[in-house]
Write a structure and sequence with these properties.
Layout (H helix, E strand, L loop, with lengths): L3 H26 L15 H8 L12 E13 L2 E8 L2 E8 H4 L1 H5 L9 E10 L5 E12 L15 H6 L1 H7 L1 H22 L4 E2 L5 E2 L11 E4 L4 E5 L4 H9 L4 E9 L11 E10 L3 H20 L3 E4 L2 E4 L5 E4 H7 L5 H5 L1 H10 L10 H13 L7 E4 L21 E6 L2 E8 L4 H16 L10 H9 L4 E7 H9 L21
Parallel strand pairs: 3-5, 6-10, 14-15
Antiparallel strand pairs: 1-2, 1-4, 2-3, 4-5, 7-9, 8-9, 10-11, 11-18, 12-13, 15-16, 16-17, 17-18
Helix pairs in contact: 6-7, 7-9, 7-16, 8-15, 10-13, 12-13, 14-15
């Protein structure tokens, strides 16, 4: 049962909506449409402020201008009204009087509500307080808002409503709008950064006959015309590598990936990745590139290499620390070098900690299970963790000096993985063996294990140049650079549990 205050709020909102519906009918009776077209603003709020804020006086020779936006406040004072109006660039003030609009047109002002979208034509002037305003001689209702906006002093604070009704969140919360703008700037920077370095932007399939490129459980669908099952991609990796085989030496894709996993402050089943591949390079080359790219986008969007996050801050000034998985288990996980090498001891420790590990789990998998539990959240970073076990890196090249690990790194910032990269495995025989190990793991119940992709193996048999590739989480990078604590803050329309009473 809803709280009495909630029921009261809903009832009040319903009565306001009914009052606005009556106004729609009253406007129709006057021959005035509540949803009109044919009005084009020539100045945005930001342009208006920039053009006229510095003007000391107006001599009456200024040209008529037109502006439009959503009303956020109305102050009606008999024969004159001030309206606070907002468009996508900011706020402006419109001044409406019976003398300038005319007696009949001014009657329409009383039909306006906060939330309505209105167009104004008139001349600029400054109020006694020095605020540039538009003195409207014409006004046109463009869209009648039937639902009242949240009360301005408290705004929209209910997290559930903010994410579920993002359009309302964007209307009333400036910070939500700023995140959208910053995200766009970040993506533009990353795209420009790579294209200036000779990378070609490409597009690969989002529906795939065989999902690959990441250890994750895929979403399944069915194509009726082809009469076959398909999967939403978990990563574009295997298709981008096919392009390396085809002769493109630097490629990238800003892509949507889908993983059938839980929802949390760090995970959304649909998310955005930047994935890029560079021939004739190694994972160490990508460490340097990643430092340059992320520190650069931080400077571009925040003005500093040092960015606040939560109760602390992160210094993104290059170079960044590098540490192996084993050394991280010792430094951050409080294990000794001997313990890191003791498979049975790690298994007992994992069981004592209540971790979900198989009784036949390999040394490498046990190391990573303890890494995830003991180390990951302590890596404030930025820090590159490298030399991951072969068992958890089925697409990465083995290290020449220690074939039990791979030439792979993960970048950690603020206790979470932000990027994953490695020197690519180009040996088709080794890759087949890794895939077959994954097939056995899947048969044993691991729903996240890789499928065997025969066509990808065939591509490798034609020969892929030595290369390195990386996946960078766009959503997590935006979280960092906007100081957002939940991934839902930086995704416009995050996935939510079904809303009661809504299909």
């Amino acid at each position: 049962m809803a709280e009495p205050s909630t029921e009261k709020t809903r009832a009040h909102g319903a009565s306001l909506t009914e009052a606005r519906l009556r106004k729609v009918q009253e406007l129709a009776d006057l021959g005035i449409p509540a949803y009109a077209v044919g009005f084009v603003p020539v100045l945005s709020a930001a342009e208006f402020q920039e053009r006229f804020r510095s003007a000391e006086t107006f001599d009456g020779s200024e040209d008529s201008i037109s502006m439009a936006g959503r009303i956020f406040a109305l102050r009606i004072m008999g024969k004159a009204t001030f309206a606070r109006v907002r468009d996508s660039s900011g706020d402006f003030q419109a001044y409406l009087t019976r003398d300038t609009l005319g007696r009949d047109a001014y009657k329409l002002v009383k039909k306006l509500d906060v939330g309505d979208i209105v167009g104004f034509r008139g001349t600029p002037f400054k109020t006694r307080t020095g605020e540039p305003s538009i003195l409207a001689d014409q006004m046109k209702l463009l869209t009648k808002s039937l639902r009242p906006l949240p009360e301005k002093w408290h705004g929209l604070t209910d997290i559930e409503i903010r994410y579920r009704q993002r359009y309302l969140d964007l209307i009333v919360n400036r910070h939500a709008r700023e995140i959208v703008v910053t995200r766009s700037r970040i993506v533009s920077y990353l795209r420009d950064f790579l294209t200036k370095r000779g990378y070609l932007e490409v597009e690969t399939p989002m529906m795939q006959p065989i999902p690959g490129g990441a250890t994750a459980k895929p979403f399944e669908t069915f194509h009726h015309a082809l009469n076959r099952g398909l999967f939403l991609r978990v990563a574009p990796e295997l298709y981008l590598k096919r392009l390396l085989v085809g002769g493109f030496e630097r490629v990238f894709e800003i892509n949507r990936n889908f993983r059938n996993e839980g929802i949390s402050t760090q995970h959304n089943p649909e998310f955005t990745m930047l994935e890029f591949y560079q021939a004739y390079s190694t994972y160490e080359d990508l460490m340097a590139l990643t430092e340059e790219m992320i520190s650069g986008v931080a400077l571009e969007t925040t003005g500093s290499y040092i960015v606040p996050y939560g109760d602390g801050e992160v210094d993104l000034t290059p170079p960044w620390k590098r540490i192996t998985v084993n050394a991280a288990l010792e430094s951050y996980g409080a294990l000794t070098a001997e313990q890191v090498e003791d498979r049975n001891g790690l298994f007992i420790k994992a069981m004592d900690m209540g971790l979900d590990v198989h009784k036949d789990a390999s040394l490498g998998k046990l190391r990573m299970a303890l890494f995830d539990e003991l180390v990951e959240k302590r890596l404030w970073g930025p820090i590159f963790v490298h030399k991951y076990p072969v068992e958890v890196s089925p697409l990465a090249r083995r290290n020449d000096e220690d074939p039990t690990v791979t030439d792979r790194f993960e970048l950690y910032i603020c206790g979470r993985e932000t990027a994953n990269a490695f020197t690519e495995l180009t040996d088709p025989l080794d890759q087949r063996g890794r895939f077959e190990e994954q097939v056995r793991a899947r048969a044993a119940g691991d729903e996240e294990a890789h499928f065997l992709d025969e066509d990808f193996l065939r591509a490798l048999e034609y020969g892929m140049p030595p290369a390195a590739g990386e996946g960078l989480g766009i959503d997590r990078l935006v979280m960092l650079l906007t100081n957002a604590q939940s991934i839902r803050e930086v995704i416009l329309f995050p996935h939510m549990r079904p809303e009661k009473g809504v299909g």
